[in-house]
Amino acid sequence: MKIAVAGTGYVGLSLATLLSQKNEVVALDVIPEKVEMINNRISPIRDEYIEKHFKEKKLNLKATLDYEEAFKDAKFVIISTPTNYDEVSGYFDTSSVEDVIKKVKLIGDSNTTMVVKSTIPVGFINSMKMKYDIDNIFFSPEFLREGKALYDNLYPSRIIVGEKSKRGEEFAKLLKDASLKKDVEIKFMESTEAEAVKLFANTYLALRVSYFNELDTYAELNNLNTQDIIEGVCLDPRIGSHYNNPSFGYGGYCLPKDTKQLLANYKHVPQNLIEAIVRSNDTRKDHITKMILKRKPNIVGIYRLTMKAESDNFRSSAIQGVIERLKDYNIRVVIYEPTLNKEVFDDCVVINDFELFNSLADVILANRMDDVIEKVKDKVYTRDLFTRD
User: Fold this and answer.
1) Which of 36, 171, 249, 331 has its Cβ near the most Cβ atoms within 10 Å?
2) Does 2-189 match 198-381 in CATH topology?
């Protein structure tokens, strides 16, 4: 079976790698450098399992810049292009997804089914069916962690398909057969409900991050031991000892935009909690900033822009919100980020020599600890307890 994957970020590349073990997969992207890297089996993103599969597995995978080459004769076109939340309109910018839909329709193969994996607003699939007079499209949410995207496809928590049909069952079987997990829960529903599942799942995760962050704020301001409290709370099996490590806030590709999108969907629905989850992220960054200012630093060093351990992504990372706040107080900020090939980021000097970086910084701000800064931890401000998540 030929499968096309439009977009080679975490979602697209992990799915392309997964499915190319047993199928012909053509991955489409608009960045020539990424296409070349994939064809040379060099992962353009940091993901241990993708890198391992590129080196060790025989994959029937080709990347291209040509959408006709990708989409022609494909049984499924998986759409995993980026969507961004637009603060002005209150909705996702889904133009990249619509662009793929139009190109698939242009090729005109009625046997091709489009499966949207990009995060989209509730009701998007139905609106696309009406707008483009099509029926060969449904939504299937992804539940992947950055840096572990292929692992999460190999051992999926669940498979959700937004259509109750034979082609929906066929797509679910593709994912199930490519996984290594014996018992995978598969759930079929309409696309609108599947769209809601995605937003509500991510908003709950944001809620959990915010909850433990606010617990940590309370403990910090009252001079209590955060770790003792969290471990005591999490011994309750209904709560569990996962996803409970304090941070500077939730960030990354999904949680900030998905929580705001869900809140926009509540415009005419009574709520208190959803808005609080969105606002809590700003409150946490405000608190972190105040705690840094108490130290009266001249120069604050930012150790890594990345959102979490074992990730090379710093899109919408919470620490960037703290940087903006520090700059508002006219605090000089320098950044140590070895993955960044720039001399300046957000008007801050980037220093890739750690010793020089350390010598300049009065305080080092680190969302997550690692061995590099352990030796200078006396000047490090972090809320990381468990060196994970």
Assistant:
1) 249
2) yes
Contact 308, 368 (CB under 8 A): yes
Question: What are residue 177's DSSP bridge partners?
Answer: none
Structural class in CATH, domain 198-381: alpha beta
Cα–Cα dist 318/316, whole Å = 6
The mean predicted confidence, pLDDT, of the chain is 94
Residue 310: pLDDT band by 50, 70, 90 thresholds? low
**Cβ atoms of residues 4 and 80 within 8 Å:** no
Cβ proximity of 18 and 177 under 8 Å? no
- Residue the block writes with tokens 């809601």: 196
The Cα 389–Cα 387 span in angstroms is 7
Give the model confidence (pLDDT) of 199-226 as tens digits: 999 999 999 999 999 999 999 999 999 9
Fold of the 2-189 domain: Rossmann fold (3.40.50)
Cα–Cα dist 168/86, whole Å: 31
Active centre residues (catalytic)? 254
**Contact (Cβ atoms closer than 8 angstroms) between residue 87 and residue 50:** no
Domains of the chain, by residue range, sit at: 2-189, 198-381
Chain centroid to CA 330: 31
Instruction: Write the pLDDT tens digit of every residue in 363-386.
Output: 999 999 999 999 999 999 999 999
Q: How far apart are CA 340 and CA 5, in angstroms?
A: 28
